[in-house]
Amino acid sequence: MAKKTNTKSGGKSSTGMKYVQTRLTEDSWRELQTLRIEKGESLQSLIVEALNDLMAKNGRKRSIVGANDDEA
Questions:
Q1: CA atoms of 41 and 6, how far apart (whole Å)
Q2: Residues near 3 by Cβ (< 8 Å), separated by ≥ 6?
Q3: DSSP string for 4-62
Q4: Span 11-61, pLDDT tens digits
Q5: pTM of the model
């Protein structure tokens, strides 16, 4: 019998993408949602932007690409 892969816990999905999960306080979640609405962007887009900022801050190439991103 084939072993199932749980894609939400770091397993590889059928699209070759990995999932990242975190927990936030209610206040933090509301602030993030407010920013998302104000900027008119998806949560996915904001998270990819933040991860690329983290890479740059640490002297690394802005190479993080999300599921719906065309370029890093």
A1: 28
A2: none
A3: P--GGGT---TTS---------HHHHHHHHHHHHHHT--HHHHHHHHHHHHHHHTT---
A4: 555 678 899 999 999 999 999 999 999 999 999 999 999 999 999 999 999
A5: 0.71
